[in-house]
């Protein structure tokens, strides 16, 4: 057949393909409706294609913000090499504003701690190649009660944030007058979109109204739990509460079991290794919550594990989940791109134990032969059949990526 001729079968194939594309588009519009249109705009901005990575002030510095601190954190993010690994957002939490708005109703940065203002702060963070996030509340006051909420000021505040060059908003849920979260959180979503600036939108509704079921159409992540504390009990319970919603996460919108406590001193190194591994596997936001200016080597080693971060940032974006539980011995697993499988063998008992994951637990064919990369020892076990088995210390975990032959 000459190149400029088109055969009848090829023509038919093209017609079918084009009409299928039209049907798909119609189905999408029908399924997601008006909210879908908003989500597509957020996605068009390219935000949240993988879980967000960065730092937030709250876990280590609740209400102890300052311009100097944020400068130093941004400096440390770059000088430690963490920014090169993907940690990009420097996020202020509660307590950055004056209690009263100005005469025009604008939010005002607290002069005693941010004397140069927010635009200057954003410029500084941007000059480091990083992005800056801010915090507001979908009620009348923030949780600390030290600054005003954004209820009924959504457009004005979104415009203020955009004018300062803000890249990320965490939107909290205190003092909300019992109004519907869907409405309050949608109003800010629309206001952010209307600014025309791509602003990552993180809903902090604490999982009260099952946001996984509605928030993916308006935001890039949503909290599924109340606040984490720097303890083993708090961390494990956040992991379990978040796990229930695994099927709702994906590129553009992520379940958020709250920020990392790694490096804050309340857990052992093995407990923090479990914390970081499970957050990575569950496609949770990796928002550092320690003082990265002075973290010790062990903390840095955990937070900078490139292979674990790659699981979190895998382009397939499938949240790994708990697939087997025998007492407190657990297997967590999820698919990765290129037919690979991520696995965490997690010993939640208080003494050493052997944990086994059978291929059927991991969704692998019974005849599969895999190479298992151990992401914490950085070594590979070749050609394994039937099951993955390891002895794991108390409160510790082993994390693998399995590549079928
Ligand atoms: C709530 C949020 C926390 C933090 C504090 C700040 O508790 O859930 O993550 O932002 O408010 O006051």
In words, what does this structure look like?
With 405 residues, this protein is of the alpha/beta class. It is built from 9 helices and 16 strands. The strands form 3 sheets. Strands 7-6-5-4-3-2-1-8 form an 8-stranded parallel β-sheet. β6, α6 and β7 form a beta-alpha-beta unit. The longest helix has 37 residues. The N terminus is likely disordered. Bound molecules: alpha-D-galactopyranose. Alpha-D-galactopyranose (GLA) binds next to loops.
Instruction: Give the helix tally.
Output: 9
Question: Overall pLDDT, averaged?
Answer: 91
Element-by-element helix/strand order: HEHEHEHEHEEHEHEHHEEEEEEEE
Give the CA-based shape. Answer: globular
Keywords: Disulfide bond, Glycosidase, Hydrolase, Signal
Catalytic activity: Hydrolysis of terminal, non-reducing alpha-D-galactose residues in alpha-D-galactosides, including galactose oligosaccharides, galactomannans and galactolipids
EC number: 3.2.1.22
Protein name: Alpha-galactosidase
Quick recap:
This is Alpha-galactosidase. It is built from nine helices and 16 strands.
């Amino acid at each position: 057949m000459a190149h400029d001729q088109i055969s009848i079968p090829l023509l038919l194939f093209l017609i079918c393909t084009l009409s299928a594309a039209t049907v798909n588009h119609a189905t999408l519009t029908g399924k997601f409706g008006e909210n879908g249109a908003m989500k597509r705009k957020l996605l068009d901005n390219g935000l949240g294609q993988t879980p967000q990575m960065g730092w937030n002030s709250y876990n280590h510095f609740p209400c102890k913000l300052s311009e100097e601190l944020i400068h130093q954190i941004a400096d440390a993010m770059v000088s430690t090499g963490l920014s090169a690994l993907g940690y990009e957002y420097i996020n202020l939490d509660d307590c950055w504003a004056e209690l009263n708005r100005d005469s025009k109703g604008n939010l005002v940065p607290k002069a005693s701690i941010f004397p140069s203002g927010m635009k200057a702060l954003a410029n500084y963070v941007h000059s480091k190649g990083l992005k800056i996030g801010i915090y507001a509340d979908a009620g009348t006051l923030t949780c600390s009660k030290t600054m005003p909420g954004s209820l009924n000021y959504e457009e004005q505040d979104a415009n203020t944030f955009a004018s300062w060059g803000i890249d990320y908003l965490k939107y909290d849920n205190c003092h909300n007058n019992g109004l519907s979260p869907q409405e309050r959180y949608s109003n800010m979503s629309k206001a952010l979109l209307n600014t025309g600036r791509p602003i990552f939108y993180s809903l902090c509704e604490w999982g009260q109204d099952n946001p996984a079921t509605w928030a993916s159409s308006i935001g890039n992540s949503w909290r599924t739990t109340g606040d984490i504390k720097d303890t083993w009990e708090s961390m494990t319970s956040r992991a379990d509460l978040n796990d229930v919603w695994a099927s709702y996460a994906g590129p553009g919108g992520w379940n958020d079991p709250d920020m990392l406590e790694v490096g804050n001193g309340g857990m052992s190194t093995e407990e923090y290794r479990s914390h970081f591994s499970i957050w990575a596997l569950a496609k949770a936001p990796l928002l550092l919550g320690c003082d990265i200016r002075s973290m010790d080597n062990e903390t840095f080693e955990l937070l900078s594990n490139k292979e674990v971060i790659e699981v979190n940032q895998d382009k397939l974006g499938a949240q790994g989940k708990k697939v087997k539980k025998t007492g407190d011995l657990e297997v967590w697993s999820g698919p990765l791109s290129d037919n690979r499988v991520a696995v965490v063998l997690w010993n939640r008992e208080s003494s050493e134990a052997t944990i086994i994951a059978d291929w059927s637990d991991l969704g692998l064919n019974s005849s599969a032969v895999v190479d298992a990369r151990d992401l914490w020892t950085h070594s590979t076990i070749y050609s394994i059949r039937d099951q993955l088995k390891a002895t794991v210390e108390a409160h510790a975990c082993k994390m693998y990526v399995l590549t079928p032959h």
